[in-house]
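Fill in residues.
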């Protein structure tokens, strides 16, 4: 499509629409090829899933590696996890003749129910599992079928922290035990909750301790992102100057989804020659578009939480929430009130705490909300 908006805000559209992540892509491919299990952390909407899809795209012509991906956010128990994995395997191996037939036959031997999506027609597998032990056995068989094919498989489990919500409180140990028995399957566990990911993979008392190589995604470098944005506009015969590119990167803080969204909006505006004034107008339009959501956030928070959130926004990056100077500047009450609010805001994922830098800081998660709060709403 000639006039397609090149700034995607959902899904993956191929290398052409994917900015940078060269090092991370290389690193992940190297880890996959060397069968090293990985835990991949990044804040929400920074590009974990995009990176995985990009890596899969790079590996699509590699006949020796099969890439599997499941997003378990919507699952609530181990049985659903097993069904999702089986569905993914079933769909993937329908494409492959020899091994495919064997795997499909093996899945059929587990007597699944196969239903078809009424819109897409794609099959969905579920097992009639009545007991916990049967569930574990089914999962084990599924992994074993895959492992026995003597092909290399990389399995990404996105939103991995979801397993902690399962009623089976030993899901981690079940998966870890399975994992240790496999020779040909390499795992990538993705998650966006830093605290939970850290707990799962770095707590010596938990099954996954020291089982994975940690990787974390940061922000795309400013010059890479500006160049990408400029090229996208230029290929549609439109112009954008450097000051405007710098403004976009700093206003969205290069938090990938927000930068993409901004550029998508800007691209949709049809201006041929884009300058700072136009970008600033677009910024206000975006905030207007989202204002009703921001008001809803306000209704979900207590007054001290809201005031603290606004103060964090105004600081952009806050190092010490309990410092007297900060509390007095925004009239936030006592340090313990602020501590409680910060805790609640972290739990609600309204703010993030970046601990992977020399001086850890708090920041409002949603960059549009941050800019809206900053205006003093
Ligand atoms: N390198 C990139 N270049 C261009 N767009 C990207 C890039 N990475 C991600 N995106 C886009 O940014 C948005 C957010 O990325 P993605 O969904 O991969 O993030 P995520 O970390 O998986 O988020 P979540 O935690 O919500 O699952 C998507 O719309 C995606 O298309
Ligand atoms: Mg994702």
């Amino acid at each position: 499509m000639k006039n397609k908006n090149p700034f995607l805000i959902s899904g993956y559209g191929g290398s052409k629409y994917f900015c940078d992540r060269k090092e991370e892509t290389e690193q992940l491919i190297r880890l996959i090829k060397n069968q090293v299990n990985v835990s991949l952390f990044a804040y929400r909407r920074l590009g974990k899933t995009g990176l995985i899809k990009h890596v899969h795209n790079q590996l699509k012509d590699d006949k020796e590696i099969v890439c599997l991906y499941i997003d378990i956010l919507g699952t609530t128990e181990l049985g659903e996890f097993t069904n999702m994995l089986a569905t993914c395997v079933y769909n993937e191996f329908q494409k492959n003749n020899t091994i495919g037939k064997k795997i499909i036959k093996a899945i059929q031997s587990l007597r699944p129910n196969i239903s078809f999506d009424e819109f897409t027609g794609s099959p969905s597998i579920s097992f009639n599992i009545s007991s916990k032990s049967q569930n574990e056995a089914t999962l084990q068989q599924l992994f074993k079928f895959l492992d026995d094919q003597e092909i290399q498989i990389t399995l990404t489990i996105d939103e991995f922290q979801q397993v902690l919500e399962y009623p089976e409180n030993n899901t981690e140990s079940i998966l870890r035990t399975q994992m240790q028995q496999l020779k040909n399957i390499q795992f990538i566990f993705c998650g966006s909750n830093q605290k939970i990911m850290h707990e799962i993979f770095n707590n010596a008392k938990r099954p996954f301790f020291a089982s994975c190589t940690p990787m974390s995604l940061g922000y795309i470098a400013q010059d890479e992102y500006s160049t990408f944005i400029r090229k996208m506009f230029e290929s549609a015969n439109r112009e954008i100057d450097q000051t405007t590119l710098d403004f976009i990167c700093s206003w969205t803080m290069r938090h990938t989804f927000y930068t993409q969204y901004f550029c998508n909006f800007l691209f949709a505006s049809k201006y041929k020659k884009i300058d700072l004034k136009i970008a600033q107008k677009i910024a206000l339009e975006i905030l207007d578009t989202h204002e009703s959501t921001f008001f809803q956030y306000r209704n979900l928070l207590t007054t001290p939480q809201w005031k603290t959130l606004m103060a964090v926004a105004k600081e952009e990056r806050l190092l010490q929430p309990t410092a007297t100077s900060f509390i007095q500047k925004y009239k936030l009450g006592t340090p313990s009130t602020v501590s409680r609010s910060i805790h609640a805001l972290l739990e609600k994922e309204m703010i993030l705490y970046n601990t992977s830098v020399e001086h850890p800081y708090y920041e409002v998660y949603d960059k549009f909300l941050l800019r809206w709060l900053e205006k003093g709403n």
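The first strand starts at residue 38 and ends at 41.
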